[in-house]
Amino acid sequence: MKRINSKYIDTGTTWLSDHCLLVNERGLIERICTSAEADALHRQIEFEEELNFPQALILPGCVNTHSHAFQVLLRPTTGQPRHFQDWVDRFLYPLVLAQDEDTLYASALLVFSQMLKQGITTVGEFFYLNNLPDGSSSRQRNVQAVLQAARDLGLRISLVRALYDQGEKEGQKRFKEPWQQAIEQTRQLALQYQKHARVSVLPAPHSLHGASPDLIQAAAALAEELDTPWHIHLAEQQSDLQLAQERYGTTPVGALDQLGVLDERTVLVHAIWLNEADKDRVAAKHASIAYNPLTNMALGDGIADIAGWVRRRVTVGLGTDANIQTDLFAEARTVEYLQRTQNLAMGCIPAARSLYRMLHLNGGKVLGLPVGELQPGMAADFLAVNLEHPSLLPAAYAEEVETAVLNQLIFSAWPAEAIQAVFVGGETVVEAGRLTLVREENVAEEIRRILG
């Protein structure tokens, strides 16, 4: 048993002082109790390790619901595309065609290490480079390279396995596969990792333009079989409305409903261009949202109605998508600022906890994992944040310390500096800003090796 002492603990729903976490040998939270209760328990059992964070807040690790790790290699071109399709054709697809196992591993190692340092303990990696450059299956070798990077770093990963059976462009050869093959390979991957503590797999028909009706329905059925959510890019661009009308005679949300797959397992990635009736339909079906505001801004996609989702009590998790940045606190901050810009008003998401939950608790729900909240039986994935760091002052001395700290975490914190330690499954994976399981020099060396 491991004991973690801290000035404050926020479970994701409740603020506590003078409490500690007890973590068992399986990497799960055994108990959250007062310091006095832990002292009494110590007379009965021996704590293998005791860690003290006297000026810190312990909070759940951030859950990144949507990432394309290899796109970190597009960072040098972020400012040049003329529009979304230009970005796809002139930048994304050439990069896609150049990828192999080595570049996929190196790019994942780079971006996953940055995520950990900024407090992300779980990533939903939406992976679609399942083929070799000639269009034949990589037989899972590509995806294994990405999974290996996460495992080496100690990052928890939900492999959101993309399913893609449409498209004739050269770059789409890396994605396109018979829908039966896509489903079977996803099933095999899920079975391979079903007992792995930090790896899980869920299906994701890429989009209405990338996945056929048969594939979308098969993916939803597979999610039910595996007892997972399933994800799909939906209504990211305004042009997606016309595509849905041409192929299905309705809206993007209407297309999913028409196929009989819109339900509580459905996670809509982006969900920007929806009318009010479709937002009501999403809420009524208890579907969820994976929102990526910084990438949506960079690609000129538009602004999702997050205030509307909050009013409808729809679960919204956050993602870093193209990984222009890997800071989920910045994503949450951007959510609120975009709502203010669009509505010409402040307080669009009035409760600090509504934004705060998007960092972790909601993300756990979007990925269908027991993460994002500190409760007995949940994964011991958490951060120790130094409340004495300048970016978090003067919150720790405010009269209403809980609201003050939550606000500053979202709106002014420098997470890469303020975070003292990051834990996944009770194991320290970042300490004092340094990785513990992989040498920092190795990350840079991998990038030099593939690009040098």
UniProtKB/TrEMBL annotation:
One of its GO terms (molecular function) is hydrolase activity, acting on carbon-nitrogen (but not peptide) bonds. Keywords: Hydrolase. Gene3D superfamilies: Metal-dependent hydrolases (3.20.20.140), Urease, subunit C, domain 1 (2.30.40.10). It comes from the Bacteria. Residues 58-429 form the Amidohydrolase-related domain. The keyword Zinc-finger does not apply. It holds the Pfam family Amidohydro_1. The keyword Hydrolase applies. This is Amidohydrolase-related domain-containing protein.
